[in-house]
TrEMBL record:
Identification of the protein by name: Carbon-nitrogen family hydrolase
InterPro entries registered for this protein in UniProt: C-N_Hydrolase, C-N_Hydrolase_sf, UPF0012_CS
Source taxon at top rank: Bacteria
PANTHER family (alphabetical): DEAMINATED GLUTATHIONE AMIDASE, NITRILASE-RELATED
Residue span(s) of domain CN hydrolase: 1-239
Family stated for the protein in its record: Belongs to the carbon-nitrogen hydrolase superfamily. NIT1/NIT2 family.
Amino acid sequence: MRASLIQVAVDEGESVQDRRARVAALVRERRDSDLVVLPELWTTGAFAYDLFDTESEPLRGTTYDVMADAARDAGVWLHAGSIPERGSDGSLYNTSLLFSPSGGLAASYRKIHRFGFDKGEAVLMGAGQALVTAALPETVLGLATCYDLRFPELFRGLVDAGAETLVLSAGWPERRRSHWTLLAQARAVENQSFVLACGTAGTHAGVPQAGHSIVVDPWGEVLGEAGADEEVLTVDLDPAKVAQTREVFPALKDRQLGLTVPGGAV
């Protein structure tokens, strides 16, 4: 299975409309890939909080239409990163879209862990409530977004739901880039899964982005890593390696659930 991570640069001088068209063209160039992944909130920038409201759109809005067409034209599974979704209840959500090669919506995921420590995304957007997996012909994807990477229980839940390849879209800041690489490898090792983590380049509202999108195998080996600038990282994966790793080193079978601490269950 060939996966391409498009590490989009967010330039504040480029309009959202122009960026949509440019990224769609990049997707169409990946016809030799099986799966293409885009970053988090690449239309606005993950730290451009003032744009979340003005550039919000319904799930099946402009970005949906443009990315569905690009997936169909390229004939790829497309994780189209995330958008600032305006839900039917009027609330904003950080929502990822996954399209099939026919251009149909295969899955959507509202980000569960919102970043900001009582400001920014944490107060502007609602929290998702559900883990999301999607079955591709070659593997089962588990979807996550940026700050989710710091919460291992989410990924355990995805593995329990059958995930073999963990796909993460992000707008991760440069100042914490060492955490990005470390956590991506940790999530791969502890869950014996592939991790495909796609970040952004450029600067979002004055916040330099880490770039360094990364693909990690179930043993924690880095199969490919991008640099700091806009780049397409393409890696060939063997999906069978997940089952092989879990059979050779069956650590997941030794999990101890239902442990207790004073005052209640863990």
